[in-house]
Amino acid sequence: RGPEAPSDPRLLPMDIPGISQPARSAPRFPSASPIRSGLLALLLTLAACGPAPGQRPADLIVIGQTAEPKSLDPQATTALNDFRILVNLYEGLVRFRPGTLEPEPALAERWEISADGRRYTFHLRRGVRFHDGNPFDAEAVRFNFERMLRPDHPYHHTGPFPLAFFFHPIQTIEVLDPQTIAFELDQPFAPLLSNLAYPTGLLVSPTAVRRQDKDYGRRPAGTGPFRFVDWQPRRRVLLERNPDYWGEPARPRQRLFRPLSDPMTRVADLMAGGIDLVTELSPDNLALLRGDPRFRVHEQTGPHLWFLILNTRSKPLADRRVRQALNLALDKQALVEQVLQDTAAVAAGPVPAAFDWAWDPDLAPYPYDPERARELLRQAGYGDGLRLRLLAPTSGSGMLSPVQMATAIQGNLAAVGVELEIETYEWNTYLAKVNRGLEGQGDLAEMAWMTNDPDTLPYLALRSAAGPEQGGFNSGSYRNPRVDVLVEQARRSTDRARRAELYRELQRLVH
Fold first, then answer.
1. CA-to-CA distance for 29 and 43, rounded, in angstroms?
2. What does the alpha-carbon distance between residue 323 and residue 376 come to, in Å, rounded to a whole number?
3. Whether this model's pTM surpasses 0.70
């Protein structure tokens, strides 16, 4: 989520956008700035590989990151920026098969699920060791999940664990033998395997946690193809090949992650050969690199959603007419074409199109209709205009050009009489601020989530019981009792067709 976690236009309230036809007409941005968005989405894993400088070892690859990691404890962080490092250090019981969202074996070689969907038995890979030399076994698995889920666990204080609710249905954990472990659930839970494949399900060394205690996130130990070397604040995180890795040896020998929050600095270093790979480039820079034969650009549409959080608790956004007016005022297709230069697609609801089995193809995004927006504002008592505050990160864990996007939103809203003040913050500061909730801080905020299941965003950002005061990411305090029911029913159903029906109804309600 942008807890990296986590709309009306946001993807919360009862109005949102989704795939629309590409209209290649003249720009429709007001003179102030461009325009934009409601629930933008999809497409944004970009990487450019450049020439390595001669003074650098040939077996080192340098990656430009958007920010300093918050933690190298996979169970204590939520940011995609951190996850990109962590998947090199750690593994989970399962992982996603490359190029898909289907779980496949990882540290568990196989598993069985009981007929009632409440018992999962995992058979673990033999001969695996953590980077600190300790064996990976069923007791290590139990330690990991009980550390997250049990407040009385002796190392629960090494959290907090903001995504532990991914595993809340696990009622008991039974070690059957050193290589076999069983999870007993309090009810069927369809997203469990998908959640285990998410980075929150990556497994840490119990011995390292005991040794480092609350400092574990600075000195990590997993079972992955790379092991930790050092973390120099604001400079780098360095990993090296794990010589005892059970799988195929990693290449190259070392990976160095550099925090470069300024996008122009990332591009300049890439062009100069100081870094080999970057992510989250601006569309302008992406276009530049596409035409340069020294670089390769990789793009893929994934289960990613970029959206606006709306503060539904306080006026004026507590009024549905105002929320819908903002959605109608934003020319999302023009944003995609002219600000993001076709590196994204417009979304219609809280389920990404990558989940084609659950996504509703008949749900159209809100059209660009500024006249209707003005009428709704008049009906809500804001015919003379209103002022709102938008919070935006200077760079985002998964967001392309967030400041330019905010400026575009500002220009569009100005055209319908809404004066928008923009406040920007560095990513980790921004995340901490927004995760506390918008009440008393602002009216709108940008956010993005790379999701792993259709359940993720509705559960994290739409449930009434997922507000910041309850440790969730419903920062705009969206409330809809029927949505709450649909979320719970969909995650308990083991019938994929039935789950799809429930998610489509949910999408229509939120829209």
1. 23
2. 9
3. yes
